[in-house]
Amino acid sequence: MPYGDPDATDPMTLHGVGVLTEDDSAMAEMAACFVEEYARLGFSEERILQMFRTAGFAGPALARRVLGEEAVARIVKDEMAKWGPGVPGRLRMDQTTAGLGLPVLE
Hints:
By secondary structure, the protein is α+β, with helices and mostly antiparallel strands. The protein has helices at residues 25-40, 45-53, 58-67, 69-83; strands spanning 91-96, 99-105. It has a two-stranded antiparallel sheet with strand order 1-2.
């Protein structure tokens, strides 16, 4: 099969599905997932908020447009309380003089 042609029988092929919701709860859940991911990698609260304000980050920027700045700030604060610095079980990026090291569990 030529490179790039999807195989309809391949169970590992990614498929996107749009789901309509009655409210913004799905968008809030998506925003919380973004925050958790970056908080567990050691990003600061301000750095994560900046990601939501940057149009180049399509998902977070959409969440901010739909939910508003205050709702996003509340989500970031709530998720940082669960996953931010000093919380057991989060990932940490070790910074060395040679650059970033591999994430390790605390």
